Amino acid sequence: MSIASGIVLYVVIWFMTFLVALPFRLKTQGEAGEIVPGTHSGAPEQHHMKKKAMITTIVAAVIWAIVAGIILSGWISLRDIDWAERMGG
C-alpha cells in the first residue's frame, strides 16, 4: 500500500465513522422546547461538532491501523475476495 492509498483509506474510514457518530447525543430543538424562529424543530439544539470530530479521528485511526495491518500483512489479499475468479488460478 502506498502513502496515497493509506491516506485515501484513512479519509474514507474517517468520513464513514463521522457519519455514524453524528446522530449520537443529538437533542433537537423540538425536544428542548425552544425552537429558534426560521429553523426546523428537528434542527439540533447543540451539535457538539468539535467533540465528535475529535472522537471520530481517534476511532478512525484505530480502525485504519487494523485495516492497514491486515492489508500490509497479506492476511487477506485481492485474490481472496475474487469470487468471480477473474484474476485466474
Describe the structure.
The chain contains 3 helices and no strands. It has one domain (3-81). The radius of gyration is 20 Å and the shape is elongated. It is mostly helical and 89 residues long. The chain has helices at 3-21, 29-32, 49-73.
Task: Provide a brief overview of the structure.
By secondary structure, the chain is mostly helical.
Please indicate the count of domains. Answer: 1
Name the helicity range.
40-55%
Give the CA-based shape. elongated
Number of helices: 3
N-to-C order of helices and strands: HHH
Distance between the termini: 23 Å
Q: Strand tally, please?
A: 0
User: Could you report the average pLDDT, rounded to the nearest whole number?
Assistant: 90
Supply the helix-strand structural class.
Answer: mainly alpha
Q: From the alpha carbons, calculate the radius of gyration and give it in angstroms.
A: 20 Å
Query: How large a portion of the residues is in β-strands, by DSSP E?
Result: under 5%
Which stretches are low in confidence, meaning pLDDT under 50 for 5 or more residues running? Answer: none
